[in-house]
């Protein structure tokens, strides 16, 4: 059984793609690194996917889906970060009402950093195939006021990234992915 954590690489045009969506790739990597460094071993596999080709029609995500859809019943949650890694505000979530209630409870663990909201729905080109077929999905919500200042521009460089905000995003990703992966049962469909 798998909890999938992901971001993608968008540096196909004029910018470096640091914020869109290198930040999502970095926090996904960091989440799994933190879990490993803490010596935690959840009941389910945490799988990191760094997607390619999102801007070219999601070809990387489509290929991954085609290769793994036969095991769709083993995918517990698919997570994608693609709104930059600014100040996090919560999660977008798509899934059953019962699963949403569980995710809301998980988000209460993030009260110390004031990131507890659960929005409807989850969004993400790379996880859309899975959600369409009933797998619960989560997307990181951040303060996107500055997102389009840098989106697909020469300004999308590492200088856009605020290390403190990225750490908060990584904390959200770490807590949600670990807790869901370590629950006794998979999220209800």
Automatic annotation (TrEMBL):
Sample GO molecular function, one term: metallodipeptidase activity
Keyword Zinc in annotation: yes
Compartment(s): Endoplasmic reticulum; Golgi apparatus; Lysosome; Secreted
Chief site of localization: endoplasmic reticulum
SUPFAM superfamilies xrefs: Zn-dependent exopeptidases
A cellular component annotation (GO) from this entry: Golgi apparatus
One BP term from GO: peptide catabolic process
Keyword hit for Endoplasmic reticulum: yes
Annotated ranges, domain Peptidase M28: 1-173
InterPro entries reported for this sequence: CPQ, Peptidase_M28
Pfam families, per the entry: Peptidase_M28
Keyword vocabulary terms for this entry: Carboxypeptidase, Endoplasmic reticulum, Glycoprotein, Golgi apparatus, Hydrolase, Lysosome, Metal-binding, Metalloprotease, Protease, Secreted, Signal, Zinc, Zymogen
Family to which the UniProt record says this protein belongs: Belongs to the peptidase M28 family.
Complexes and interactors: Homodimer. The monomeric form is inactive while the homodimer is active.
Name recorded for this polypeptide: Carboxypeptidase Q
Lineage of source species: Eukaryota, Metazoa, Chordata, Craniata, Vertebrata
């Amino acid at each position: 059984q798998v909890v999938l954590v992901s971001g993608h690489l968008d540096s196909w045009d004029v910018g470096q793609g640091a914020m869109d969506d290198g930040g999502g790739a970095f926090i996904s990597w960091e989440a799994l690194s933190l879990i490993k460094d803490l010596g935690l071993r959840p009941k389910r596999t945490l799988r990191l996917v760094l997607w390619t080709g999102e801007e070219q029609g999601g070809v990387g995500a489509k290929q991954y889906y085609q290769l793994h859809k036969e095991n769709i019943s083993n995918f517990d949650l698919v997570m994608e970060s693609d709104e930059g890694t600014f100040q996090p505000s919560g999660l977008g979530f798509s899934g059953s009402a019962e699963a949403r209630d569980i995710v809301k409870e998980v988000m209460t663990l993030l009260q110390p950093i004031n990131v507890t909201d659960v929005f409807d729905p989850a969004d993400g080109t790379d996880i859309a195939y899975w959600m369409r077929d009933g797998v619960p999905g989560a997307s990181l919500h951040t303060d996107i006021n500055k997102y389009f200042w840098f989106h697909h521009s020469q300004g999308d460089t590492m200088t856009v990234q605020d290390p403190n905000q990225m750490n908060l995003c990584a904390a959200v990703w770490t807590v949600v992915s670990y807790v869901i992966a370590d629950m006794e049962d998979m999220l209800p469909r």
